[in-house]
Specification:
InterPro entries: Alkaline_phosphatase_core_sf, Phosphodiest/P_Trfase. This protein is α/β, with parallel strands linked by helices. The chain has helices spanning 51-86, 122-129, 146-155, 159-162, 193-199, 235-245, 265-271, 276-298, 357-368, 460-468, 481-485, and strands spanning 102-108, 132-134, 169-170, 177-178, 204-207, 226-227, 256-261, 305-310, 316-319, 323-325, 340-342, 346-349, 379-383, 402-406, 411-413, 422-425, 439-442, 450-452. The longest helix is centred in the first third of the chain and has 36 residues, at 51-86.
Length: 490
Amino acid sequence: MSDSITILTPDDNKPMIPISSKQEEDEDDDTSLLPNLTTHSCSSSSSHSHSKPTVIFISLILTTCIALSAAFAFAFAFLFFSASSDSTTQVSRSLKTLKTPVVLLISFDGFRFGYQFKTNAPNINRLIKNGTEAELGLIPVFPTLTFPNHYSIVTGLYPAYHGIINNFFTDPETGDFFTMANHEPKWWLGEPLWETVVNHGLKASTYFWPGSEVKKGSWNCAKDYCMLYNSTVPFEERVDTVLKYFDLPSDEIPSFMTLYFEDPDHQGHKVGPDDPQITEAVARVDKMLGRLIRGLEERAVFEDVNIILVGDHGMVGTCDKKLIFLDDLTNWIEIPKEWVQSYSPLLAIHPPSNYSPKEIVAKMNEGLKSGKVNNGEYLRVYLKEELPSRLHYSASDRIPPIIGLIEEGFKVEQKRSQRQECGGAHGYDNALFSMRTIFVAHGPQFARGRKIPSFENVEIYNLVTNILNIHGAPNNGTVLFPEGVLLPRR
């Protein structure tokens, strides 16, 4: 298997990005909608009986002209003075304490878009009010799982190109199995932000981010700057460790930092997105954000730091009535459990080489469409190269040849059991709104109170490199994306 990265170009089917646009040059002329104010002089031979209506008509015309003129003048003055008053806020703000830009990238795992409305979240809302927000959420990459998305955020690459195509998968050439505890460089392709930053002679620190423990290139996961994952570390300790970096001399402060929290994903899997435990988890991470903000304010650097708050995916409720069993397909084809690399929410099947994936897909879909398989209509099976191109999920040998897309909230299992459960899941099609998460950015290079359209998280890599004024590695993000999000430099 080659570790090279190919075809790193944005796809035409990507969501619209908030880059500046100009009005069409050939826009229709709106002057045809204005009233015709041309008047004709009255003939001296007009009878006296017509003079009074004529005077009234002319008066109405003059009144209309005056009103329109006043309206246009007011509109012009309003726009002019509004532009003038905002001119000082439309460029990036100068640093007051720090000497160079700093980006702090924070992840609330499994923070579905809309969770910020579940409870009073004053600190998240403070960043939204005084920063820039993706108004309808951040779009994850497919599959909407933790490791593929976290690594896409920091590499700007789709999973097919950065290599982490699932949380668990098998290398088809070597038979080696990848788990979330694996830190061998061979699995982790691309160039993550911490590596890009140190390549430019700057410092980076990571507090629990998938891939950050991998020693690759110029990144050696230095002690005190790269924390080894330990889920038992209290959230407060994580925040306080990051704050201590700002107590260092200016040239020792990392230019790029990450900070990770398992909540509210942890609760979401157990109880789904609508349980009171989720509300408590949202309040908890908001409290940690408040602890961070206060610490930055005490050090007089809050307004200098570019904080980017994101999640990796959303969450949807699942329950027993929404199950699909592969054993129900035995009248059409048998799918042994040894063929299945993952069941839900992404069905991934790798049959032996003496079986035809095309024939397997055809027989599975025949059974699913027959009406004789419970919930069969909620699963569609594809050859990976025939998946919708917008998913960008085919250009890797690590992706199994057969992929099943499962409808929102449904799950695939091998066989029926007596186990009863209701919980939450993610990993589904990234076009689903329930899979969206948050993007909120606050700092000197982000406008205050600004709303931008939703975008895919592969754009964040270029956003960070632009803020730090460094050249990034080739990626799937859009080169011009930062121009539509960041304030221009002074």
